[in-house]
Design brief:
By secondary structure, the protein is mainly alpha-helical. It has helices at 2-32, 36-55, 62-65, 69-77, 80-84, 93-110. Helix 1 (2-32) crosses helix 2, helix 1 packs across helix 6 (93-110) and helix 2 (36-55) packs antiparallel against helix 6 (93-110).
């Protein structure tokens, strides 16, 4: 079960990056009248590089380590706490960012 959870997390990160790339490419193409596919490729490569840079950062921010009661209540009331406490191994944020960055760079180069 944990494999499915981690693969969904990984696929979700890639899907969010793809949606951001589509929105940026369409907006730029509408504003400047350029080619959407070319802009989409460039944005995919830029987001891939950004994800690789984010992978070099710490796994958790200082604010994440010192969550106060209010933020903990909001997190748990939205259902995210059940994913945090799920049994089984978890992919680190670094692994997810590295994998997503490589996939985005490969998509940008392949298109």
């Amino acid at each position: 079960m944990w494999i499915v959870r981690e693969l969904l997390r990984f696929a979700g990160r890639i899907a969010v990056a793809l949606l951001i790339a589509i929105v940026i490419a369409e907006a730029r193409a509408l504003i400047s009248g350029g080619d959407t596919l070319w802009t989409f490729r460039i944005v995919l490569m830029l987001l891939g590089c950004l994800y690789l840079l984010l992978a070099a950062g710490p796994g958790a921010s200082l604010g994440g380590r010192r969550m106060n009661d209010t933020s903990w209540w909001i997190t748990s009331s939205m259902g995210w706490a059940t994913l945090q406490d799920a049994p089984g191994p978890k992919m680190t944020a670094t692994a997810v960012f590295v994998g997503s960055g490589i996939v985005l760079l490969a998509l940008g180069l392949a298109l």
